[in-house]
Amino acid sequence: MAVIKHSGLQKDVLGIYRTLLKTVSTAIQRSNTAASITPTDDMRKKINVYASIRSEFRTNKTKIASSSHAAIEHLVRKGKRSLELVKRLNEGMDGISMHDEGSNKTGRRKWA
Question: Residue 96: what pLDDT?
Fold first, then answer.
C-alpha cells in the first residue's frame, strides 16, 4: 500500500480536524458527567457536533481551490482560534459564546 505524503498545510488542516474532534468529545463527556445525562443523549450530541464539524470542513474543501494557499492558511488560523475556544470552554471558562449579545460583529467580546 502506498504511503500518502502530505504537505505541511495539509498536515495542519488534518491536525486541527483531529484535535477538534478529540477536544469536543472530551468536552461532551465532561459536561455529561457533571450533568448526569444519559449515554444516548451523549451520543446524539457527539453525532450532531461531529456532523457540523465534518460539514464545515467539507464545505471549505469544495469552496476553496487546493492551489489557494492564502485562503487555506486563513482557514487554518480560523480553525486554530476555534480550537482554542473549544479548549478554553473544555477547561471550564464561563462567559465565552460566539452568539453572545455582548459581542460585536467580529465575535470578540465587548468590554464595558
Answer: 40
